[in-house]
Amino acid sequence: MADDFERMWADLAPIGRSSTSGGYFRQPFLGAETELRAWFVEQAIARGLVVEADGVGNVVAWWDTASPGAAASGAASSGAGGAVLTGSHLDSVLDGGAYDGPLGVVSALAAVDLLRSRGVVPLRRIGVSVFAEEEGSRFGLACLGSRLATGGLSWSDAQELRDRDGVFLADALASVDLPGGAGWPGGGVLDLSGVGTFVELHVEQGRDLVDRGAAVGVASEIWPHGRYRFDVTGEANHAGTTRMEDRADPMLTFAMTALAANKQARLSGSRATFGRVEVEPNGTNAVPSRVTAWLDARCASDAELADLVGAVTRQGTERAGRDGTALVVTAESVSASVAFDASLATAVAADHAGGDWPVIPTQAGHDAGILSAAGIPTAMLFVRNPTGVSHSPAESATVPDCLVGVSALADTLERLAGR
Ligand code: GLV
Ligand code: MN
Ligand code: MN
Q1: Which of 141, 366, 380, 385 to mutate for ligand 1's pocket (most ligand atoms within 8 Å of CB)?
Q2: 135 touches ligand 1 (CB under 6 Å)
Q3: Ion ligand 3: residues, CB < 5 A
């Protein structure tokens, strides 16, 4: 098992890695991410798994022992409990870590190898999935592939999405060589109706497991979270000749709004981040005409999230009134809280020799949250991250912890899929 895991991990290490930061740029439907998807298909074929791919970049590799004559689709395996799906994503945030996403995919393949080496012949089909554009780093909407596959996002809404260069999603898909062929929308989307359970293994994105001294944990819930675009318009003018009192400077409104968001989140025990800003015309010697910034907000409950965003919007609007600018806030995506199947979480947590794994909440979004919200009983396993850092090149996990994760995932799959 260790060899399988480490060999696969070494295959992926150079793909999309920045030689300056050591972080990863694996944006969807571009070079590195496309290479990773092709690598995944090769790995699946090498294991004799049946590859099912769609027109939006989602792929499932089926270990089809349960119903050898069945067609290769999730839907075909409906019945007593349905198929068991496990996997994650291969795309990254801009300058992201190595583990967020790929750890779940590589661990899923390694878990299949481990189950085979144990002689397990599952009664239910097991699929290893890769969902497209989980991070929303290119088209702005997180979990794009799983939202489309579960019906949480419609074609008509998806076709409005554009990347930062104005490229429409459909054009990006048509320009890339996807294993599903046809591109979008002709290639359709995965049919998950036959999936009975989903399990996603993921690197932990905080320090909870480090503090608890546990190699692995199980998710209880995902905090509600959302992305909100703040458009502030003002008046472009000369940086030298325009008296300070004569300005309508959107940068000031944005700066005060960012401070307000930070204070509001601290006061309420929530999270608020402005991590992306665009300025027009972005010149050193000009008062800007427009600042567009994106707020990522996360709270313990849906009501607290609405309150937080409402308070930040109110304070930003008041400030805009004083600055002579205008603020418009648009919710680009809002994901409600997700409570994972509690009995499944308890069973997964109890599924190891040394005692119970801790069951912990997370503030990060995942495809698992989308599948759970779509009514598929879902569990998540986390692998300890010694730095506690994520969405950064500093994200980490040790090989021994990753191997504990693979065993925990294999144990979970074995019990869910029967033998
Ligand atoms: C995805 O990792 C997110 O939580 O934004
Ligand atoms: Mn992830
Ligand atoms: Mn992530």
Answers
A1: 366
A2: yes
A3: 100
Ligand 1 binding pocket mutation candidate from 26, 93, 295, 298 (most atoms within 8 A of CB): 93
Instruction: Assess contact for 217 and 360: CB atoms under 8 A.
Output: yes
User: Six-digit token pair at 364?
Assistant: 């990060």
Answer yes or no: are the C-beta atoms of 129 and 90 closer than 8 Å.
no
Cβ of 142 closer than 6 Å to ligand 1, yes or no, is yes
265-302 burial code (b ≥16 CB/10 A, e <16)? beebebbbebeeeebeeeeeebbbbbbbbbbbbbbbee
Q: What pLDDT score does 79 carry?
A: 39
From the list 147, 195, 183, the residue with the least C-alpha distance to 332 is 147
**Highest-confidence range of 169-178, 275-284, 344-353, by mean pLDDT?**
275-284
CA of 97 to the centre of ligand 1 (A): 12
Is 364 close to ligand 1, i.e. is its CB under 6 Å away? yes
Is 396 in contact with 382 (CB distance < 8 Å)? Answer: no
Peptide bond into 281 cis (omega under 30): yes
Say how many Å lie between the CA of residue 272 and the centre of ligand 1: 13
Residues in the chain: 419
Is the confidence at residue 80, as pLDDT, over 90? Answer: no
Q: What is the pTM of this model?
A: 0.94
